[in-house]
Amino acid sequence: MKKFRLVALLASLVLVIAACGSDDGDGTSTTAGGDTTATTTSDTVDLNQGSDLTFHMVTHSDDGTFWSVVKKGMEDACTAVGVNCVWSPSFNDPSKQVSDIEAAIAAGSNGIGVSLASPEAVVPAATAAVAAGIPVVTLNSGVNDYQSIGAITHIGQTETAAGNGAGLRFNSLGATKVLCAQQEQGNVGLEERCQGAVETFTGAGGVVTQFVGPDANPEEQINTILAALQADPDINAVFGVGPIVAFRAVEACSQAGRECFIGGVDNSEDVTAAIENGEINFTIDQQQYLQGYATIITLYLNNTNLNTLGGGFPILTGPGFVDTDNIAEIKALVAAGTR
Amino acid sequence: MTTTAPAAEAAAAPDERLAYRGPIQRLLIRPEIGALIGAAVIWVFFWAVTDVFGTTAGVNNYLDVSASLGIMSIAVALLMIGGEFDLSSGAITGATGMLVVLLVKEVGEFGGAGFPLSVAIPLTLIFALIIGWANGTLVEKTALPSFIVTLATFFILRGAKLGFAKLFTDKVIVEGLNDAPDHGFWENVFGAVWIRNDHVWDSFLGGRNVVYGVLLTVGALLLIVGVLELMFQRRETPAQARMPVAVVGFAAGVLGLILLAATDGTSDNWLWGIVLAAGGAVGMYGMGAWRYERRADSSAAVNLTGRVGRNVAMGGGAIALGVVLGLILDAESQTEIGFLLTVQGFRAIAYAGLIITGVILLLGAARSAGKTSARTQLAITSMAAAAIVVVAFIVQSQADSRKFRAEFFAVIIGAAVLMLAFGVLRSTFVERRKPDAVADKRGRTLAMTGIAVAFTGLAVRLMWATTFENETIRGEVRWRIAVFYFIGFAIVASYLLLRTKFGSWTFAVGGNKNAARQVGVPAARTKTILFMIVSAAGWLVGMLIAFRLNSVQANVGDGNEFFYIIAAVVGGNLLTGGYGSVIGASIGAVIMAMSFQGIPFAGWNSDWRFLFVGAILLLAVLVNNYVRAKAEAAS
Amino acid sequence: MSDPALLELDNISKYYGNIIALTGVTTSVNAGEVTCVLGDNGAGKSTFIKIIAGAHQQSEGTLRVEGQEVMFDSPRDALELGIATVYQDLAVVPLMSVWRNFFLGAEPTRGWGPFRRVDQEKASGIAKDEMAKMGIDIRDTEQAVGTLSGGERQSVAIARAAYFGAKVLILDEPTSALGVKQSGVVLKYIIEARNRGLGVIFITHNPNHAWPVGDRFLILNRGKSMGNFAKDEITRDELIMMMAGGAELEELTKELEAASAGDESLAHLAEEFAEEFHELEERVEDDDH
Fold first, then answer.
1. Looking at domain C7-95+159-239, does it have CATH number 3.40.50.300?
2. Separation between Cα atoms, residue A152 and residue B486, nearest integer Å
3. What per-residue confidence (pLDDT) applies to B9?
4. Considering only residues 216 to 245 of chain A, which have any Cβ-Cβ distance to chain B shorter than 8 Å?
5. Is any Cβ of chain B less than 8 angstroms from the Cβ of C67?
6. CA distance A76 to A294
7. What does the alpha-carbon distance between residue A136 and residue B72 come to, in Å, rounded to a whole number?
């Protein structure tokens, strides 16, 4: 029966549209923490002063694995302090994000967490929220703009910090020359990751940066990394600045017959599996659970105690590392949805 | 009745005769020739500036990249010749790859199909064919531009890929193809890999390099003799007494080449270079004296005045300046001299740029002089050849690698000799201006055999290893079955295009659809089949990717459709349809792959990659156009 | 006439809704004869072609092929009865070689199964021979048709139609896009085709092209037949007059004169035009006496 269902789904292109539609359906604002908060509040402490607070998380999130962890962090924090939380993902649509912010202001939100992936579109709305006297925290992306809009702080990982971490990690692994493999040209974030590694890496050969072809072209990525390895026998480490490109480096190193140290960025089930069986040495984890959790806590403390966490500086949630030492524990946490 | 008779007049007037175009010209207007020349130039360039590019590992690398690109660009070229585009051709590769994984996998709460591959793979092919059929039918029924229709298909596929991946697996990547029960069998079909490093063949007399060298030399020789036969007017009765001159000359040339190849590259090898040069030249001249008719006007005086003289002076000056700069500048100096150039870089440009410019100027002058005086043409050609030989010796004396001291040296000397010898022959013997079926057939057979033998040599070179090579290439040479699919598909598609009815119809619907329809060509069906060929090729590439990675990411293939079209255009296919070649598109794909992969091999900054790729694209298209224009204008 | 004509049109009319495209057209073409259909733009020539080529059906009247009454449902029906049409612009695929064009849609093949391939040698040889019969020496049948002259391109299409068993050849304005000399070449091929026993329907707006090759003339004006004459029933000048629509031409002359008042260069033109017209009129009168 289940088989039939899948085949029927795949056979019909019409369903594509249906699938898109259902995405939009999921995308509407849901009070994710609301129910649990309500029950928790009544279950636990009556004296909880924050019980009537409502915080809004308006992000450019899709419903991928990364953001589901952020959402889980938010829910857990809301449960812990007993507030209402609203999760509004915009699926990379800045105009939806703006209207969600405006809706939150109109609803008299007690605090807004906002991600600034498209600052030019979203900054005015976020500034308006601050002007309306609502505390704002930026999370995930927005480190360059949080001060100008008057947010309490930014909670996330800077790309440079991620690169710094990778450089240090390669130092301790004993790498002598690192290939920083980029999967996209002209992407500021990826450039900063490579640049960060350049800053901290102390091996004799330094870091060379190479665009290795887009994720859409796996064969090209493998062979470009391979070509770089064959052209330069000194390279013994590859820093793949995306989650996919690190996998490509595994095959390239095997074909080049070279023992490579391989590092990646971002965590997922596939990456944890590869780290577990020793193909990839580490991946940089920006611990996005913290981004959800700490945003709520910061907003909560600001509301209840006028605290401003961070002292005007961003709060870094990473780089955390997933490597062979902590993989067993991390794996359990990934399954639990908090890493 | 007053009647004039224009008809009678017209009948009395002579027919407009069609100019004779020799087999060489006819060959040159083949769409793939420009691409072939472009590929050769790019190959030599990267071979010279990198260590690995010219080795088996390098060839393996860019052929591997060109396999998927090539399979698709062949299909896209067929469709382009048929006058349409398919912008969904990139997305379909990922879509079919993803679909086969989803059909095989037991997926989570939605319940997987869990089919064996033997069911999933044909189902996926049917899916691809339906997409192609839908594209074709929509384009035909709506008469909308295929750009729009297939753009819609592209977005639908792209959305479906991401949507279904998320829906069934909650991830942007679907994996687990290798869990299928019959994965082993199908992996042999789509994912087979041959590692050839351990096939070492290097005993002195039977070693790979010897076999390869002999095959390549024999092939080149046959090709040259074939081209001579096609180019020149045969004598009524061959002067048999002069045959030995040709044989001895060629033999000496081959001997020189063998001795050059056998050197260790540590000492100067000018002697063998001279034997190669002299032998080759004497052989070709002997061939001419033996078989071809002499030019009556071959004794007109040398005349170096006017524009020809000016070009000769400029060309000679450029070469001299290049040589002088090359000699006085420090080859290792990294001192910046402005405009992002180091002394080393400037020297390289002086060497390559000035000398190449000089030689081109000289050859241009020779060409225009040839219209009036064969001797002048010869004199200038000799100058160019001499300049090249001088440069070859300088490079040899300065270089410290075997590649430059022996191989590069032999190539340059060989090029100079060929240039000079053809100059001599063209100024001494009559070029054929009329049809000669016997000579055409013989020449063509010789040339084709030569090419086949040379390619066999290359195959031997690629499929066996030597100990020396294994030490230098740093890694394994993994031949994937994708490369063989690529070559096989190129042959099949070329046969389809050039030898079958369907091929004729393809040209016709792209060239003039109404005319084709008028004479009974089923235009709609032809186009729909072409769309289906593209999506079936997408299916093949999807299978190759899926079996290579065992997983497929949702965005695989998106955006590649433009590279397929670019490869087809580089290969001499017209964007407007009706003209082109499958072999050209294959070569175009290899050119693209070489230009992408050459950059990491050279260790260059990849920021400039697209600038470089753009330049190569432009160059390829210009060369292509130039060659075709020249060939069409000839005689 | 003992033998029925190859193609006979009897009182053919065609309406598109309430628009009358063609009314009461009667003509015929015999084997080894050229019937010229003359008319200015909008005279109904294309409707005429479409009916006999099978693209459209007549609304009234009968069409007879070798005495048999027929009604075409599609161009294929017409083709099967040996009526082949050579359209002015649609005749050939310029980027394809002569032999591929010649055999397009009817390629001879050899071999079996997947190895069934086009018999290039045979096709190339036949194309060369057939073109030679038209008086064109194609040395290299691999040459693209686009490199041939305009007249030769038309002749490829004519030779092709003749080879594939056409009995009636409809030529749609084959000379309209060509220069004087090229037109002459095409006229020569029309005569060649006629001499080989084909019936030719030659559609043109140029009486100077029609007169020397035609055996019969059908003149159309605004969808109406102005007459269907054998060559001995009409003179060249009458043909020109009729075709231009005598009365209309006279009016046009007057209008031109009126419009040109004050404009010297235009006046000059009007004068010339009037002069030519009167000369033509006089000649027609002379011919009649």
1. yes
2. 58
3. 37
4. 216-220, 223-233, 244
5. no
6. 10
7. 51
| DSSP alpha helix (H) spans, chain A | 2-11, 14-27, 34-43, 65-81, 94-106, 119-131, 146-149, 159-173, 188-200, 218-231, 243-256, 269-276, 288-305, 327-336
Q: What single-letter amino acid sits at B426?
A: R
B contact chains, 3+ CB pairs < 8 A: A, C
Bigger pLDDT: A336 or A51? Answer: A336
Q: Which long-range contacts (CB under 8 A, 24 or more apart) does A211-214 make?
A: A211/A182, A211/A183, A211/A184, A211/A185, A211/B606, A211/B607, A211/B609, A212/A181, A212/A182, A212/A183, A212/A245, A212/A248, A212/B600, A212/B606, A213/A183, A213/B596, A214/A183, A214/A184, A214/B555, A214/B559
**Per-residue pLDDT at A111:** 94
**B515: nearest CB among C76, C92, C213:** C92
Contacts of C240 in chain B (CB under 8 A): none
Which comes out higher in pLDDT, residue A26 or A105? A105
- Would the CA dihedral through B258, B264, B265, B269 be positive or negative? negative
Does the pLDDT of residue A267 top 70, yes or no? yes
The full DSSP string for A69-116 is: HHHHHHHHHHHHHT-EEEEEE-TT-HHHHHHHHHHHHHTT-SEEEE--
Taking 70 as the pLDDT cut, the residues of chain B under it are: 1-22, 107-113, 204-206, 263-269, 297-305, 331-334, 337-341, 400-403, 405-406, 624, 627-635
- Cβ contact B277:B256 at 8 Å: yes
Query: B512 to chain C: which residues are within 8 Å by CB?
Result: 90, 92-94
Q: Average pLDDT of chain A?
A: 82
CB contact under 8 A, B107 and A229: no
d(CA B545, nearest CA chain A) in Å: 8
Within chain B, all domains assigned CATH 1.10.3470 are found at: 25-197+471-633
Optimal mutation site among A194, A211, A236, A269, interface B, most CBs of chain B within 10 A: A211
Partner-chain contact A227 B600, CB within 8 Å: yes
What tokens were used for B359? 């030689």
| Architecture of domain A29-157+287-318 in this structure | 3-Layer(aba) Sandwich (3.40)
Number of other CB atoms surrounding residue C140 within 10 Å: 18
Query: Which amino acid is residue B126, in one-letter code?
Result: I
pLDDT of residue A3: 47
Candidate CATH numbers 1.10.3470, 1.10.620, 1.10.10, 3.40.50; the one for domain B25-197+471-633 = 1.10.3470
CA distance B492 to chain C (A): 10
Candidates C100, C149, C188; nearest CB to B7: C188
pLDDT < 50 positions in chain C: 1
The CA distance from B608 to the nearest CA of chain A, in Å, is 10
Quote the CA–CA distance of C81 and B51 in Å, as a whole number: 70
Amino acid letter, residue A292: G
More confident residue, A67 or B337: A67
Contact residues, chain A, for B475 at CB < 8 Å: 226, 229-230, 255-258
Q: Is the model's pLDDT at A113 over the cut of 90?
A: yes
Which pair of structure tokens corresponds to residue A136? 């704002």
Structural domain spans, chain C: 7-95+159-239, 98-143, 248-288
Candidates A19, A210, A224; nearest CB to B163: A19
Alpha-carbon distance of B365 to B322, in angstroms, equals 19
Q: Which class is A159-285 in CATH?
A: alpha beta
Residue span(s) of chain A under CATH 3.40.50.2300 come to 29-157+287-318, 159-285
ipTM of the complex in this document = 0.80
Chain A neighbours (≥3 Cβ pairs under 8 A) are: B
Query: Do residues A238 and A246 touch, judged by C-beta distance below 8 A?
Result: yes
pLDDT (average), residues A218-229: 92
